């Protein structure tokens, strides 16, 4: 079973890879050639066999280091600082990874030299590279490198499709940290594409601390202060052609230092697809790619996180989901930091192979004005969810020091609202609405 990856030629792989580990990927003999409709030859990455204990968080019995193509995707509103990382008071459930596991030694993937890896980024990292070098084994550094790589790989993939370039915008947060926003507007393929990285730190406000306590976090500050660091990569892509879906993803890490110097940490994130018209082959590819990544770590992850995604991206006042879902999780902090990071890394690396083949497949699909109008109506629903329900957006807009441009990056350039709009029965528009009102199991 193969996972489609972006690179069309070994030369392209070599050009994009950074660091000794990444350069070696260009020489790998493992990929097999797969042909996608309308896309030409692509390299496929062997899925690899993971030994998993049924019902537990299984771990890899053997390393695939040096044989995996690096495929990363970047992701949407990390908001101003803590955004979706702390605004979770109304979350549906707490993500749990089983704590009872078969004792298989953890095999940490070689991550390469910091300076070498930074050369392939869209911009220098938010944190000074000398600081990253000095604490390269700390999770906050490893996660920052992952989200920077995710941003770079996804942006380069989209630039290759569109022919346009991203505008790279570095910003600073006076309270601590900053971010890198990459935005493409009015391109040939993408009406608006945004891929943001945010790395912020400081002390939690009392309101943020209260929200975390309401989620079961027992946090003990010193002199009323709770130092934190929050980071993430997020993206929303709005194509021009109504037959190419909108995609959103977000992967993030949060760390709080308590009075005794101990640290609490957790991860969150997910990837979801919002098509304008249902294409069962696209839905299967998208969900199966996510499921394959989840299954490497726990056979129940895809089922649990797919259900959570359907519940979270639900437009209650419309009685419909925002799209056809994907995966979504938050507060993931067990069984170990290394295992959770490995899981998040696997999820982040699915973004290109679960989306780019769909883009290429529909790149030259013709469409009518009526189909474009339906896309605009669906865009309106997307805006409604983000402004009315999305925790990250709401929290970011209410947080001092917020960068509004980054928060609202997820909104499309154009959208449409029609009074009492309802598609005619038997149409493809009605078929789409039926799926949104009754989410399906695609895999």
Automatic annotation (TrEMBL):
<feature type="transmembrane region" description="Helical">
    <location>
        <begin position="69"/>
        <end position="87"/>
    </location>
</feature>
<dbReference type="GO" id="GO:0006782">
    <property type="term" value="P:protoporphyrinogen IX biosynthetic process"/>
</dbReference>
<keyword id="KW-0472">Membrane</keyword>
<keyword id="KW-1133">Transmembrane helix</keyword>
<protein>
    <recommendedName>
        <fullName>Oxygen-dependent coproporphyrinogen-III oxidase, mitochondrial</fullName>
        <ecNumber>1.3.3.3</ecNumber>
    </recommendedName>
</protein>
<dbReference type="InterPro" id="IPR001260">
    <property type="entry name" value="Coprogen_oxidase_aer"/>
</dbReference>
<keyword id="KW-0560">Oxidoreductase</keyword>
<dbReference type="GO" id="GO:0005737">
    <property type="term" value="C:cytoplasm"/>
</dbReference>
<dbReference type="InterPro" id="IPR036406">
    <property type="entry name" value="Coprogen_oxidase_aer_sf"/>
</dbReference>
<comment type="similarity">
    <text>Belongs to the aerobic coproporphyrinogen-III oxidase family.</text>
</comment>
<dbReference type="GO" id="GO:0004109">
    <property type="term" value="F:coproporphyrinogen oxidase activity"/>
</dbReference>
<keyword id="KW-0812">Transmembrane</keyword>
<comment type="pathway">
    <text>Porphyrin-containing compound metabolism; protoporphyrin-IX biosynthesis; protoporphyrinogen-IX from coproporphyrinogen-III (O2 route): step 1/1.</text>
</comment>
<dbReference type="InterPro" id="IPR018375">
    <property type="entry name" value="Coprogen_oxidase_CS"/>
</dbReference>
<keyword id="KW-0627">Porphyrin biosynthesis</keyword>
<comment type="subunit">
    <text>Homodimer.</text>
</comment>
<dbReference type="Pfam" id="PF01218">
    <property type="entry name" value="Coprogen_oxidas"/>
</dbReference>
<keyword id="KW-0350">Heme biosynthesis</keyword>
